[in-house]
Predict the 3D structure of the following.
Amino acid sequence: MLQNHKIITIILIALLGLTGCISTDNKEVTQSLNKSIQKDQFLLSQAIDLNKKGEYENANAILNELAKSGMPEAQSLLGKAHHLGLGTPKSPQKAEYWYKLAVSQNYTISIYLLSSLYKENGDMEGYNLYLKRAVMLDLNIATEMLSLQLFLDKNKVGLIEWNENTKGNKNNYLFENYLLELLIDESKIANNDKELLIWLKLLADKGNALAQYNYGMAYINSNYGIVGNLKTAKYWLKLAATSRNIIAQRELGLINFKEGNYIEAYMWFMLYSEINTLESLKLRTLSLSKLSQEEINKANQMLNDIIQEKINKINKQK
């Protein structure tokens, strides 16, 4: 990100360009500005390298100058230094000051760091305010924190609300997954499957891999009042497996192996073996022993087709 005064200069130069009024002087200003930005970025990278080496005081000296000039990355890093006591005494007040300057420029990670600072110092109002703001900006670590917090509090209503609030966010699935876990736990205790089934189907239709896996397994095990149906189970498990749900990949491999569909079993075990556990490698080897070279080639082609289909789907969503 660029410093505020530099952003203003760029906008002015751009406007002049639109009106055809860029003079030699303006070009010189642009070149000078670019050099200044490159210098600041070089200094920032130096400070980051010094931090990695543990030379915090030297890093802070650079960051202090950059932060004063308005660079949000430097403001955030300097706030973190005061927050954690890196090369300087811990100071919640100074950390808050620098974090807030970065936050004012919508530097996302600072919003989360500020929420953490407030939590550590007992300001739960500030913590919740900035954590939720970071979640709305789709910061992964913030979404992980809030969704886990709601799950541990058994706050089903909160998980449902935040699932709705963050529609369209790439990390939205975290609220969905914790909601499912909570509903499954409730179902075991209260023996009430109705609400769980509603959410399983809703989220499975939406494309949530965990819901698709659990919905498929319900058809295998006749859970939640569902009548067993292997064909339907395989349909949902395949959707989950192609979304990289490793448990669904394993289950599909086992189902096909038991049915004697060794080519398809090998394909799913190939995907499952990416986690590189002893069990996954054994299953892949076991299914491989049942195949000829021609059948192995066919399985590999099927695997490539699934991967390509997934890539095409992702590209279509962009």
